[in-house]
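To assess whether the prediction recovers the assembly geometry, we first specified each molecular entity separately, as shown.
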Amino acid sequence: MISEQSLLEQEVAKLVVQTLKLKIAPVAINPEQPLFGDGLGLDSIDALELSLAISQTYGYQLRSDDPDIKIIFSSLRALTKAIATHRTK
Amino acid sequence: MSDTPLIGPYNPDDVLIWTQDGFRTASQFLSHVFFVAASLPDRPYVLNALDSRYDFLVGFAAAILRRQVTLLPQSRGPQTMRSIALGYPDSYCLTDPGQAVEGIDCIQFNPRIDGPSRPVDVPRVSESQVVAVAFTSGSTGRPTPNKKTWGALTAVAKATGLRLGVKPGDRLAVVATVPHQHMFGLEASVMLPLMHGLILHAGRPLFPGDIRQALSDVGAERLLVTTPLHIRACLQEKIRLPPLRLILSATAPLTKDIARAGERQFQTGIHEIYGFAEAGSVAERRTVRTDYWQTLDGVNVEECDSERRVRAWYLPAPVAFPDCITIAKTGRFLVHGRTADQVNVAGHRISLAELNRKLLEIEGVEDGAFVLPDDRPDRVTRLMAFVVAPGKTEAEIQAVLRTQLDPVFLPRPLVLLPRLPRNETGKLPREALLELVASIPDSYD
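The predicted structure of the complete assembly is given in tokenized form:
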């Protein structure tokens, strides 16, 4: 049972898919599923590429020493929540 | 052969490394090494999977004192670690507290130093002692071991320092974005600073903001060891870095454009190292000035029976280049790209033949081929795979590959087709594969 994506989640899902050239439809990303590790199976190179795209699109610069970094990257939902909180554009 | 000190010209109270818990002096480090060395099990091989560069270095040095050989996993993915451990049944794995790899004997590293540090003599290590094994993916499917002697590691460190103008005793700090288990990481982020008495940084910054923070942490003159990917990221973020003596880049070629922009924005010289796991670092260039690589002191390149090889006193035998090169005069050479069967993804090399063999071994896969699309400069290009497997889904095949391959080699995307564009002789020309690549839309909109 895939839970629904919010509007911003749809936008972020599209950014993730386009940035990382994933062969999945953005709507197919389960917002609760892990982005890294066992979910989409992304790695640290993806994390860096994704951070650049997020910074360019939303003006939010990610940092590994953010105590919440593990939570931020844990799912589309968590990532979108962090973007909504920290975005400057 | 002679023996040389385990660490470079540090006074006992000199800072050796910055860690999250503060600076560690040379004598604190040595005390920790002796403490850990005494606690290691009596086995000849150790897989060092430790995340912090400080912990890794303590484990590495302790293993050297116990005459144990450190196995350097290409990645710390469980399947990579298991395939290495399989070839060394008498090995154990040194892991961070709370971490374990299923199917391998794991010893948890103790990051605490019990009791005050005491003055100890700097141990000496024989140049002929094998201290590490770096792995490359051979065509046999098993990781191919490349033995590294103490003499080889120290010689490369000294030659690199000499080329870059790093002098023993410089109060210079080295921050690195590359993993210390990778051959270039071990040479440039561990051995180079350690042999010159420099300050190391235990972290491995990833995002541009992390890199700036790590450089600020050390508060000395700085050297950044990194990759074209990180340099491009820092440029794109228009980030200002603290003053740098120089930037050292490796794992993929840097373009002149990025090098020029980087030198301007970061107000420092950007040098590149060319090397590969079998030989270690081989040559250096200042990218904005020349396309030619200049061999490090002690390294010779030669052509022998139409094969280009590297020769050095510390290599047991000449090693063939994995890339196509042209040799110019006095140790200068040009690199034209990898030989046909080799691919390099984010500094990890593998042969296409091996990848294809793994693909074809999967039940239900009738035909299939990996392809590395033409590189986009300063980005990591991912492999793609085209597969004929009636009745199978992409997810099913990916799931099997995930248990077989280092994650950087997983195809992105894996495309199922009714048949591959093989020619009459059954061959699959690269041009035909590239046409297939071009026919795949970049991503879903």
